[in-house]
Specification:
two-stranded antiparallel ribbon, 5 strands, 3-stranded antiparallel β-sheet, 27% strand
Length: 77
């Protein structure tokens, strides 16, 4: 089961969206209504994240950004 984030769709300028999470199978259709209130909802698409450290961060040289000279961050174009 996957946990999805949904938000209510505001019906006026003063109304703020309400966010909630729900576990669903990937085969389940997205919700269209809040399970408790019945308000219209939409699924929120979240971006992934990664953890970079100084040891794991790619340098510009690894991206083809210039000639490497061996210094940390010492690439020349």
């Amino acid at each position: 089961m996957t946990t999805y984030v949904y938000e209510t769709i505001p019906q006026s300028d003063r109304e703020k969206p309400e966010h909630f999470e729900i576990k669903q199978s990937m085969q389940d259709a997205p919700l269209t209504r809040h399970p408790d209130s019945g308000k219209p909802v939409r699924r929120v698409i979240l971006g992934g994240y990664g953890i970079l450290s100084a040891k794991s961060a790619p340098t510009a040289c690894e991206f083809g950004g210039g000639e490497c000279c061996g210094d940390p961050g010492g690439c020349r174009n």
